[in-house]
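Re: weekly structure request thread

Next one in the queue (340 aa):
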Amino acid sequence: MFGSIFSFLSKDIAIDLGTANTLFYVKGDGILLNEPSVVVVERSTNKIVYIGKAAKEMMGKTPPDLEVIRPLKDGVISDFDVTKAMIQYFIGQVLKKRKFFKPRIAVCIPAGITAVEKKAVIDSCLMAGGRDVLLIEEPMAAAIGAGLNIEEPSGNMVVDIGGGTTEVAVISLSAITYSESVRVAGDEANESIMSYLRQKYNLIIGENTAEKIKIAIGSAYELDEELTYEVSGRDLVSGIPKSIVLTDKEVREALQEPVKAIVNAIKRALENTPPELSADILDKGIYLTGGGALLKGLDKLISKETGLYVTVTEDPLTDVVKGTGRALEEYKRFKKVFVS
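Done, posted below.
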């Protein structure tokens, strides 16, 4: 009796615990939180000072006594204590008056995650206040969130490009028949832009600036019109501030390596897909999701390289958390998609 009352009063939560952003979906309420996975800690006391958007705004601007931490790297937990505190804070934000009652939590994970990394996710959620933790692989969650029919005996290829990893998966009969996870995604693209500017212009910029450049003029395929972006940073030689005007062609050149790694992962997945499912993919094409799917011209490049039709899903930034939430809400229907 008490268990059923406890379950009624608590709220089930779906979490997309991403390298770049963390999203919370609350059963019955939808997406209630979308915050950067960034935390600012006071070095002397290890006290957490800022979490989320406020913390991200401080990247590259903190005084010596404060440290900016991104507790997830390549899609997995790299700092357990900070991740636990971040999840606990976000749970308090979304549940508010109901935070006394422990929620059941469903979390998406990379397809290539190890047993140790799985345990870190489960333990961090339990210690942050969850009463039970379910895991679902990111490409499966993305496919559900994008509205694909994962239950039919037909192949669907999903490419989820996040902040830390790119997940390529072929899904049929509510199971992943083939998957590949490469630790190349949005963060690697930002680093490539930073490295390019340092080498070509002796210009040092921060990660936030690199991300803004990528969003504004980044592309994987030649654009119809030239785009430019004025970039300000610090001169590596003189140490004084300077600005340059960057073109989309230059950013495309900077992004060649990470984009090539993603395309090669897709090609490997196609080569390893069973023939019957390959025929389905030929008919349906490839579905792109995740923030990286928004890189201009990426769909065109993948289509050119594979000869297949490529679709960017309607809302790639939230597909994973929406799919995790839907699987949690319709647990009896989607029970098979959760992994142990």
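The chain has three domains: 2-36+73-140+320-339, 149-184+257-316, 186-256. Residues 1-9 have pLDDT under 50 and may be disordered.
Next request, please.
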